[in-house]
């Protein structure tokens, strides 16, 4: 469905609705069982696969068995030799690293072996005016080491402003080569999530040149940015294209008691700040909990909030307990969540690794089914979960 909402209409709608009250602790997902769980029996945890990272934020895989990882203060690193060697990449653009901003996500183009392309999101500007930017460059290794070449900003979020919060910004790519970017609404600019002439609080679909993708739902519509894929987001920090299901999934930091999992459909409005579970962190009311039919309701909601910041589908055979489940990294929740589905409906939530007392920024699943967990701390690290090798079978008599 294709819809647009003018800012003024949205503001008056929210004023009209503000006299209603909501019960902050009730939501339609309360009956879904939630439990703490031990790691599946065949899973081995390496708590210190790569250490010495400062606030690792995003990670992706190079096709040759290497890895790239971002550190929010502004460094990009290549991991080689299965975690033994970590090298800094030179040639990054100027990054405004302050509060929640800095170097954020990284995505390796599937044809990296041929075109060398990677994409980065980062906060650009200064304390007076800043925004999320999408950067494209070639990641190459020359005689000096790893470096970025031919780099350029291919997209800038608008409007730029003076905050330090809710930059987003994850990257994902679908089978058509469409580049999705999840962008936050910059916190106290919540109404911009409904403003179709701004890219605050939106998920975009771009070409690798940063232009609106050809099949986008709002192309050719007056008063709507053609790069918008979906709108009404607060701070979506998890985004993944599921190539098997042909679905785009996102988690976003909601208000207090309103973190959401969303199945992202083109042209849908996910409601923020008009329709949301939860309340302001200051305690005040925001929107209505129940979405009317022309808004997309979340697939799942966490009450209380856990700050979901990254997600990855597990579709490998090597850890059967998690097959076809959605893994979610949480910051304040300090847990790795596995959601079990019946079709598109969540039917069970299990929470792992809670006893470690660590903030998890991102979870990634490698091509062999290994799981990488980015631990958010100034002395941060990447943990690795792998299926244990089967015991050697006894020699035949
Ligand atoms: Ca929502």
Secondary structure layout:
Elements: H1 7-17, E1 34-36, E2 43-53, E3 56-61, E4 67-71, E5 75-80, E6 85-88, E7 103-108, H2 112-115, E8 117-125, E9 130-142, E10 145-156, E11 171-173, E12 179-183, E13 202-206, E14 228-231, E15 235-242, E16 247-253, E17 259-264, E18 300-302, E19 308-314, E20 325-330, E21 336-342, E22 345-352, E23 360-365, E24 371-375, E25 380-387
Parallel strand pairs: 1-22
Antiparallel strand pairs: 2-25, 3-4, 4-5, 5-6, 7-8, 8-9, 9-10, 11-12, 12-13, 13-14, 15-16, 16-17, 17-18, 19-20, 20-21, 21-22, 23-24, 24-25
The structure holds calcium ion (CA).
The site of calcium ion has 6 residues, from loops.
Structure commentary:
The chain has helices at residues 7-17, 112-115, and strands spanning 34-36, 43-53, 56-61, 67-71, 75-80, 85-88, 103-108, 117-125, 130-142, 145-156, 171-173, 179-183, 202-206, 228-231, 235-242, 247-253, 259-264, 300-302, 308-314, 325-330, 336-342, 345-352, 360-365, 371-375, 380-387. The chain has 397 residues and is mainly β. The longest helix has 11 residues, at 7-17. The model is unreliable at 1-24 (pLDDT under 50). The structure holds calcium ion. Calcium ion binds next to loops.
């Amino acid at each position: 469905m294709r819809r647009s909402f003018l800012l003024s209409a949205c503001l008056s709608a929210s004023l009209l609705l503000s006299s209603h009250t909501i019960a902050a602790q009730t939501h339609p997902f309360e009956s879904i069982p939630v439990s703490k769980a031990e790691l599946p029996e065949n899973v081995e945890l390496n708590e210190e696969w790569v250490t010495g990272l400062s606030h690792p934020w995003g990670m992706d895989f190079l096709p040759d068995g290497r890895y790239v990882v971002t550190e929010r203060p502004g460094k990009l690193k290549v991991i080689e030799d299965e975690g033994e060697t970590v090298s800094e990449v030179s040639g990054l653009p100027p990054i405004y690293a302050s509060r929640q901003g800095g170097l954020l996500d990284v995505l390796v183009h599937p044809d990296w072996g041929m075109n060398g392309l990677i994409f980065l999101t980062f906060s650009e500007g200064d304390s007076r005016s800043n925004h999320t930017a999408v950067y494209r460059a070639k990641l190459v290794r020359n005689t000096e080491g790893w470096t970025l070449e031919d780099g350029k900003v291919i997209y800038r979020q608008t409007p730029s402003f003076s905050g330090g919060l809710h930059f987003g910004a994850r990257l994902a790519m679908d089978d058509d080569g469409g580049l999705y970017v999840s962008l936050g609404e910059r916190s106290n600019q919540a109404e911009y999530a409904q403003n179709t002439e701004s890219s605050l609080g939106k998920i975009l679909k771009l070409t690798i040149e940063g232009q609106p993708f050809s099949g986008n739902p709002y192309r050719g519509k007056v008063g709507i940015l053609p790069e918008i894929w979906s709108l009404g987001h607060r701070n979506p920090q998890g985004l993944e294209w599921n190539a098997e299901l042909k679905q785009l999934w996102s988690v976003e930091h909601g208000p207090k008691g309103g973190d959401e999992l969303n199945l992202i459909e083109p042209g849908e409005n996910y409601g923020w700040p008009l329709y949301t579970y939860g309340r302001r962190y200051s305690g005040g009311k925001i929107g209505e909990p129940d979405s009317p039919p022309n808004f997309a309701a979340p697939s799942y909601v966490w009450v209380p909030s856990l700050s979901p910041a990254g997600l990855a589908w597990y579709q490998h055979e090597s850890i059967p307990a998690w097959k076809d489940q959605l893994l979610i990294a949480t910051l304040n929740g300090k847990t790795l969540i596995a959601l079990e589905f019946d079709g598109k409906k969540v039917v069970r939530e299990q929470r792992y690794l809670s006893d470690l007392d660590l903030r998890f920024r991102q979870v990634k699943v490698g091509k062999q089914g290994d799981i990488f967990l980015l631990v958010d701390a100034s002395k941060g690290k990447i943990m690795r979960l792998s299926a244990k090798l089967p015991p050697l079978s006894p020699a035949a008599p």
